[in-house]
Design brief:
With about 250 residues, the protein is α/β, with parallel strands linked by helices. It has a single domain, classed as Metallo-beta-lactamase, Chain A, CATH 3.60.15.10. It is about 20% helix and about 30% strand. The protein has 8 helices and 14 strands. Strands 6-5-4-3-2-1-14 form a 7-stranded mixed β-sheet. The protein has a 7-stranded mixed β-sheet with strand order 7-8-9-10-11-12-13, with no helix packed on it. It starts with a strand and ends with a strand. The mean pLDDT is about 95.
Amino acid sequence: MQVTFLGTGTSQGIPVIGSDHPVCKSTDPRDKRLRVSVLVEWDENTYVIDCGPDFRQQMLREGVQRIDGVLLTHEHSDHTAGIDDIRPFYFRQGNVPFYAHKRVFDALHERFAYIFEFENKYPGAPEIEEITIDKEENFNLNGLEVIPVEVMHAELPVLGFRMGDFAYLTDVKTVSEVELQKLRGTKVLVINALRHKEHISHLNISEALALVDKIQPQRTYFTHISHLMGFHAEVEPTLPENVFLAYDGLKINI
């Protein structure tokens, strides 16, 4: 399995529009972060987790020709606003399966009504196949079992995903002990770490490290990173062995 980090930034991305923060002015490409998403590939399968507002740019950058489906963690715009850009895939290959909680689909029906209308559908709008998932039941992607893991983003439930030895969690603030059990034995963990200071709905770096200590993966990559985290080149050397800051375009093998 290969995982490509399509984006590793928080909801505003880095640089933030109009910001004079030093990280936003950085010339290090690792400090340029699109909205958070990953591409997961194994055998002949290609799936995306989340399709935010930078989805088109991410697909072009990585030269993606086909996707077999999109897994959505939750309904926030930085994770779903690129849904219309599924159109080129739809035109070439037909309906694209989307996997999400019912609550997420309900939100998308309101925000993107023209995509989901059955009568008088707007010409050229994409069609997606809705596959409802929740934390109670594992599901299968072309032979690969996926274990949904519920985490809390303040008061909002968000789904993370474990795929074999790989687990992807974003927008985490807390995880119940029951859900943590699903992550035992994970070899590679991706989890959000927003900044150094505490945040109401995201793990900061010390909280993320404490959770890593509980899960004990072989390798961990932090994502959903704010400019307030600091420069990539300065922060990563301070992390424990086998804990890394992810960056856009990074590819890892599991």
